[in-house]
Amino acid sequence: MPFIEAPTNFYLGRRYDPETRRLVDDVVYYDSRDLTTHAIVVGMTGSGKTGLCISMLEEATLDNIPAIVIDPKGDITNLLLNFPELRPEDFQPWVNADDARRAGLDLPEYAADVAARWRDGLQSWGIVPERLLWLKKVAQYSIFTPGSDAGLPISILASLRAPREGWAGNEEFLREKINAITTALLALTGKNAQPVQDREHVLIANIFEHAWKQGIDLTLEDVIHQVQKPPFNTLGVFPINDFMSERVRSKLAMDLNNIIAAPSFQSWLQGEPLDIQNLLYQPNGRPRVSIFYTAHLNEAERQFMVTLLLENILGWMRTLSGTTSLRALLYIDEMFGYFPPYPRNPPTKEPIVRLLKQARAFGLGLILATQNPGDLDYKGLSNAGTWFIGRLQSENDKRRVIDGLRSMASTDDEMQMSDVERLIADIAPRVFLMRNVHDDNGPLLLHTRWAMSYLRGPLTRQQVQILMKDQRAELMRGMVPAQQTRTIHTAPVPGLPPGAPPVPPPPVSGAPNTPPPPASTGFGAQSAMSPVPSGSQAITPPQGFSGNPPALHSSIDQYFLPVNLNPQAAVSYWEEQNNTRAQNAQGGVLVYVPVLKVQALVRYQDRKANIYTARTFAYRVPDVQLAGIIHWDDYLVDPLDARAINPEPAAQVGFGELPPGLSDNRRLSTLRREVTDILYNTALLKVPHNPDLKIYGNPDAGFNEFRAAVSQAVREGRDAELDKLSARYAGLMDKLEERLRRKEIELRAEEKELGDRRREEMFTTGEALLSLWRGRTNYTLSRMSRATRYRRQTTADIKESHDTIASIEQEMGRLEEEFEQALNQINERWTQTLERVEDYNIQPYKKDIHLELFGIGWVPHWYVGINGSPVLLEAL
Predict the structure, then answer these.
(1) Pairing state of beta strands 685-690 and 838-842?
(2) Where are the domains of the chain?
């Protein structure tokens, strides 16, 4: 509609008249759904390409559409330079000192000048500060710097793991992914290996396929070891040593090892996982703009990173349902080297082709930008529905663009290439020829609006570090290794009354199936501890412990929990927890402390929500008495793998004394029934639920997935309703415009008739004077009266036409206001729908509560002497 556009459309700028070389009043909107057929932006440096692309990203963010951005130069990081208050002090840290010097101003003066320029520019395009503020708040902007600690680190390990959706039924897609990952990995070693043709590629691809078929995750270390010793004996019909000799495989393994041996490569292995869902959505489900800053990487590293990212996007995309609305954006700021013409075939090219062909069905839009038209393989861009062509550097570039467009134009394409060639011949900065296959009006010249973000040019890594300081600190807090946050449970030493002199445990050695100690344990050289032996050496139990387990009723089960820590590790964790150093640690006797061990598997089923899942609840209750209330929630612990629980103790050890409740069969039977009742009444599975859309969250996924599903459903519903509303009001407006057009034609005819009547009246009056003089009075007066009457009638018709036109224009204004109110009501209603989230509770049936473990749990502890005092340190 010409008078107002639905908010699904992006505000890009205004029309540009090439004849007058001026802006016209027509605002240019771009339907966000057209981006599902992708967009290509071509323009030389200084053409305004970055401003146009950032404006599209801004509009998408305002519509709650998340984005992943590949930024090889650092220009798109300017999205984070959003200053709603437009104060000079906000701009000052980011202005370019060289620009200020060339302007002959100091930094504060230049910052004030830039702030004033940005304020005036935004006002001239009708952009109010409130819009900047909403843009700043609506999404989280994150800058990832692979292989660098300047921004947020990203871990590539998730890309090598086996597909969670399984191998069967996904073979074709997964083999494409393996080929791309293998090509990128070999490119890091300097090898331009191609699938099928090169033995190195075939070998590594088969290593991945062999592991993924079995659901086995791989690491780079695994790949290197398996290159040396493959997990299969033949490749094709040849034995592995005939296909590739051991010497050649060792050389390939060494080349791969050189990659991960480099200290700088360690930064590729830690950080946020390459999880597309989390890169697009925050934990609360709000959109996220994830910018991958790659200016610091060499070409091989850049190809490797982008390939992994594209393949992960393809994998995420295949988990989605179809949609006609825009769900997310992938923007590549500079296509140089990623999508070159034949015969070049970098590892990034194939996944980009697949995305261009398949992403539309899933609502994923691609925006691909380049300075040099020669960087693009136009045959692969036949699925691109929109082209933005800006100022080009040479006639050769213009010819390439025209040839590319002509190769994609169909026989019934109304676009005239001669017109396009004429329009782009001398195009001005910030002006683009927009060719959209979805627009029936043909190509047009667009002058881009003022960007809301401050376009200061590429940011340095130091500036990125400043912007990402808070997010990086938050990410690092979430990445603290588990052993650094482990809680060390100490138990009172039985048999020692308060104030009794400490009795250090005897020095012993050896322990069964325990992990090696950390590098630093805090023990002095003379007091180093050794684990408990697994042989038949007799050990005297410490005071308060028995050498034999207590006799139990045959109906009482008992479980020996695994020993996961040796004495050195247990003491190290004690040191961390108490923020002190164990100056004199001695001994290390393994003893078991009894608790009531309960572990229950609870299944949940709900047809309406289509939920079928299970949860495990585990409890460890110490000191169970013959009577009394147990507050079960106080004793919740992490579940254990039942396979790790032993039917026998790990070694000859000491056993703590059973509390009275644990040896009483009736008490345990009562507690068994009680825990089942407790779980039946309290173990509710809560999932988020949107009652308006009847969407239920997946209890085995994050909240952001539920929020993303609701957001997409809201966008689809809103778009459909807005389409109907726009169509209805467009029909009404078309009728009014047609009435107005006819009335204006009628008015022009009446005005012409009035002029004719006036001339006729003047002629009649002159003739009447002569006739009167001749004595023909009656006939003359009659003609004069008739001419005057016709003139007055025409004047009245003109007045009526003016009134009708004013009425039609008034009706059009009223209709426009009514349409805008209807738009606001639709948006408000769907916004309320988006925000409506309720808990949906699923209660288990008693038959679905299964007690996996119920009985006496023997918790392993190390009985050690620390600084002259006996301490029990949990070894679980």
Answers:
(1) antiparallel
(2) 9-152+269-479, 157-267, 490-683+849-874, 703-842
Counting every residue written for the chain, the total comes to: 876
Cα(250)–Cα(268) distance, integer angstroms: 24
State the pLDDT at residue 67.
97
Query: 214-228, 525-539, 684-698: lowest mean pLDDT where?
Result: 525-539
Q: What is the DSSP string of 526-584?
A: GG---PPPSSS---PPPTT-BSSPPP--TT--EEE------HHHHHHHHHHHHTS--SS
Task: Please determine, looking at this structure, whether the domain spanning 9-152+269-479 carries the CATH number 3.40.50.300.
Answer: yes
| 569 vs 874: CA distance, rounded Å | 10
Question: Please, which pLDDT band fits residue 483 given cuts at 50, 70 and 90?
Answer: very low
Question: Which residue is it, tokens 């030493």?
Answer: 493
Q: Cβ atoms within 10 A of the Cβ of 321, count? A: 11
| 233: exposed, middle or buried (Cβ count in 10 Å: 0-12, 13-18, 19+) | exposed
d(CA 119, CA 727): 36
CA distance 67 to 61: 8
Task: Taking residues 857-864, report their average pLDDT.
Answer: 89
Answer with the residue of higher pLDDT: 784 or 85: 85
Query: 246-261 and 220-228 helices cross at what angle (nearest 10)?
Result: 160
Please give the span between the terminal C-alpha atoms of the chain, in angstroms, as a whole number. 69
For residue 738 the two structure tokens come to 């047609």
Alpha-carbon span 432 to 48, nearest angstrom = 9
Its CATH architecture, for the domain 703-842, is Orthogonal Bundle (1.10)
Tokens of 491: 């138990």
Q: What are phi and psi of 155, to 5 degrees?
A: -100, 135
Q: What is the 3-state secondary structure (H, E, C) of 283-324?
A: CCCCEEEEEEECCCCCHHHHHHHHHHHHHHHHHHHCCCCCCC
pLDDT digits (tens, 9 = 90+) for 510-564: 333 333 333 333 333 333 344 444 333 445 667 778 888 888 888 889 999 988 8
How far apart CA 97 and CA 792 sit, in angstroms, is 74
Helix (H) or strand (E) holding 826: helix 777-835
**772: helix, strand or coil:** helix
Give 158-210 pLDDT, tens digit per residue: 778 888 778 888 888 888 888 888 888 888 887 877 787 889 999 999 999 99
pLDDT classification of 501: cutoffs 50, 70, 90 = very low
Q: What is the SS3 string spanning 424-443?
A: CCCCCCCEEEEEECCCCCCC
Residue 121 neighbours by CB distance under 10 Å: 14
Query: What average pLDDT does the segment 362-372 reach?
Result: 93
User: 202 near 249, Cβ under 8 Å?
Assistant: no
Instruction: Tell how far CA 186 is from the center of its chain.
Output: 28
User: In whole angstroms, how large is the CA radius of gyration of the chain?
Assistant: 38
**Residue labelled with tokens 């960007």:** 451
CA dihedral 299, 305, 311, 313 (to 10 degrees): -120
pTM listed for this prediction:
0.78
Judging by beta carbons within 10 Å of its beta carbon (0-12, 13-18, 19+), is residue 236 exposed, middle or buried?
A: exposed
If DSSP codes are grouped into helix, strand and coil, which group holds residue 332?
strand
Average pLDDT value for residue range 798-810? 84
Out of 9-18, 86-95, 117-126, 780-789, least confident range: 780-789
Q: Quote the strand ranges of 124-261, DSSP E.
A: 140-144, 154-155, 234-235, 238-239
Average pLDDT over residues 356-382: 89
Q: In the predicted model, is pLDDT for residue 830 greater than 60?
A: yes
Cβ–Cβ under 8 Å, residues 819 and 673? no
Residue 861 φ then ψ, to 5°: -135, 155
Q: Which two tokens stand for residue 36?
A: 């599902």
DSSP string, 169-191: T-HHHHHHHHHHHHHHHHHHTT-
Could you tell me which residue, 853 or 774, shows the higher pLDDT? 853
